[in-house]
């Protein structure tokens, strides 16, 4: 039977993936280093701040064995700066810039085939290190909404001003979603839409809709594409028979 | 296209107006004269899958059995109405699978104008669906609320559901961590 799940990540799955991000924890009790699948954690010696995966940090917080330190971008001043940037009229078409990426570890080599291990560069959702907590002030990392809501839900007392931050996060979310929706007007069957700096949960929210729209546009424009291709081929080789469809998906391997 | 796809089957079942080019014996019952020959130049309404088959000439020197016109949902009147205001037109009343029908017609006829109009209609109505799904009010006439949603055709209904589901899952996830028990 066909799998009824939609393609791509659902918002709940994106939220779950966010829990692998590292956060800074201020322990209250000692804990030895744990051997996790991703590697060993650092031993916890109070009161030194230590990085731990978010799911472990939330567990310890629930058991009152640790406190979580909010990352630098999740402070009042940082969020206010970002909100000012987003609501500024001059930046109505772009999102606030994402944090700086770490240095690339591979050198692009045009002779190697596509997706060969020597040239694959990990990008935001899969970057091992956080990118989410080490993001500098004034930049929203990829999992900003998930991380912010998880921390505000479980560790609200670790924030000096949780309510104000909740309001700012909500405003940020509304502004960014409305920008995203404005971008729908220029969706094309074949072209792309530039949304640099968009967050994981935002993408998950519109994924189903945007996928459907682009697919529909593609189907309607298919006839036009074929006409154009036939005209090109007739112009290219005199009286050549038009090729079968299906060459769009082939990668030049 | 997929053999088992229900939307595809339903699209192909939609009727298109055709005109016969040859007299067809024993098929008179299609135009109301049973047990007689179907005359040349009779207008018929055939389902798309059948019309498409008959449209193709069986051999290079044998003429095709029928010729086909654009179905009523895609004729000038509707196209002009779409150019004027795509949002207010009730597409469902025209054809439940309007865009799919349009795509199939475009495979058989070449009509640049129709392509443009359909693309623009689809895009405009999709933006409208997104606005409504996110709960935006934005100055729509209060009485029109039900009208637009009832007039959505099949593909637009899927977009509407996808859009609602997206917002609902995000809301559910954001709300659920309040009561989460690790």
From TrEMBL, chain A:
Pfam families xrefs: PSF2_N (PF25005), Sld5 (PF05916)
GO cellular component, one term: GINS complex
Domain DNA replication complex GINS protein PSF2 N-terminal: 10-69
CDD domains, A to Z: GINS_A_psf2
Keyword vocabulary terms for this entry: Chromosome partition, DNA replication, Nucleus
Gene Ontology biological process terms in this record: chromosome segregation; DNA replication; double-strand break repair via break-induced replication
Acidic residues bias (residue ranges): 242-253
Basic and acidic residues biased stretches: 223-232
Main location class: nucleus
Region annotation (Disordered) ranges: 223-253
Stretches assigned to the GINS subunit domain: 135-220
InterPro entries xrefs: GINS_A, GINS_bundle-like_dom_sf, GINS_Psf2, PSF2_N
Cellular compartments annotated: Nucleus
Quaternary assembly: Component of the GINS complex.
Family according to the record: Belongs to the GINS2/PSF2 family.
Protein name: DNA replication complex GINS protein PSF2
Taxonomic path: Eukaryota, Fungi, Dikarya, Ascomycota, Pezizomycotina
UniProtKB/TrEMBL annotation, chain B:
Lineage per the UniProt record: Eukaryota, Fungi, Dikarya, Ascomycota, Pezizomycotina
Name under which the protein is recorded: DNA replication complex GINS protein PSF3
Function: The GINS complex plays an essential role in the initiation of DNA replication.
Location of the GINS subunit domain: 75-174
Segments forming domain DNA replication complex GINS protein PSF3 N-terminal: 4-55
InterPro entries: GINS_A (IPR021151), GINS_bundle-like_dom_sf (IPR036224), GINS_Psf3 (IPR010492), GINS_Psf3_sf (IPR038437), PSF3_N (IPR055221)
SUPFAM superfamilies: GINS helical bundle-like, PriA/YqbF domain
Signal peptide: none
Organism of derivation: Cryoendolithus antarcticus
Location of the protein in the cell: Nucleus
Subunit structure: Component of the GINS complex.
Homology family: Belongs to the GINS3/PSF3 family.
CC annotations in GO: GINS complex
KW Zinc (keyword) present: no
Keyword entries, A-Z: DNA replication, Nucleus
Domain of life, source organism: Eukaryota
GO biological process, one term: mitotic DNA replication initiation
């Amino acid at each position: 039977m066909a799998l009824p799940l939609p393609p791509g990540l659902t918002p709940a799955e994106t939220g779950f993936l966010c829990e692998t991000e590292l956060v800074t924890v201020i322990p209250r009790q000692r804990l030895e280093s744990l051997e996790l699948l991703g590697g060993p954690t650092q031993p916890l010696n109070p009161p030194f701040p230590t990085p731990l995966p978010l799911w472990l940090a939330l567990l310890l917080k629930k058991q009152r064995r640790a406190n979580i330190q909010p990352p630098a971008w999740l402070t009042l001043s940082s969020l206010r700066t970002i909100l000012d940037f987003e609501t500024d009229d001059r930046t109505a078409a772009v999102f606030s810039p994402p944090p700086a990426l770490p240095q690339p570890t591979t050198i692009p080599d045009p002779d190697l085939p596509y997706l060969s291990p020597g040239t694959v560069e990990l990008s935001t959702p899969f970057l091992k290190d956080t990118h989410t907590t080490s993001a500098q002030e004034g930049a929203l990392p990829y999992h900003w909404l998930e991380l912010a809501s998880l921390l505000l839900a479980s560790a609200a007392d670790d924030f000096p001003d949780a309510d104000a931050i909740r309001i700012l996060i909500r405003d940020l979310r509304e502004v960014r979603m409305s920008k995203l929706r404005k971008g729908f007007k220029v969706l094309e069957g074949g072209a792309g839409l530039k949304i640099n700096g968009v967050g994981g949960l935002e993408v998950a929210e519109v994924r189903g809709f945007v996928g459907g729209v682009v697919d529909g546009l593609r189907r309607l424009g298919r006839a036009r594409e074929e006409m154009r291709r036939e005209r090109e081929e007739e112009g290219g080789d005199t009286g050549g028979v038009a090729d079968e469809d299906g060459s769009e998906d082939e990668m030049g391997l | 296209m997929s053999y088992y796809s229900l939307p595809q089957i339903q699209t192909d079942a939609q009727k298109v107006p055709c005109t016969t080019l040859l007299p067809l014996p024993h098929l008179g019952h299609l135009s109301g004269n049973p047990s007689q020959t179907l005359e040349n130049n009779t207008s018929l309404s055939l389902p798309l899958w059948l019309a498409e088959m008959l449209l193709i000439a069986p051999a290079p020197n044998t003429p095709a059995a029928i010729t086909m016109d654009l179905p009523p949902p895609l004729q000038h009147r509707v196209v002009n109405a779409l150019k004027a205001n795509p949002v207010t037109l009730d597409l469902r009343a025209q054809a439940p699978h309007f865009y799919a029908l349009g795509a199939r017609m475009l495979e058989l006829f070449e009509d640049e104008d129709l392509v443009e109009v359909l693309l623009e209609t689809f895009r405009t109505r999709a933006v409208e669906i997104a606005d409504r799904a996110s709960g935006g009010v934005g100055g729509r006439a209060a009485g029109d609320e039900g009208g637009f949603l009832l007039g959505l055709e099949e593909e637009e209904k899927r977009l509407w559901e996808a859009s609602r589901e997206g917002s609902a899952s995000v809301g559910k996830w954001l709300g659920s961590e309040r009561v989460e028990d690790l």
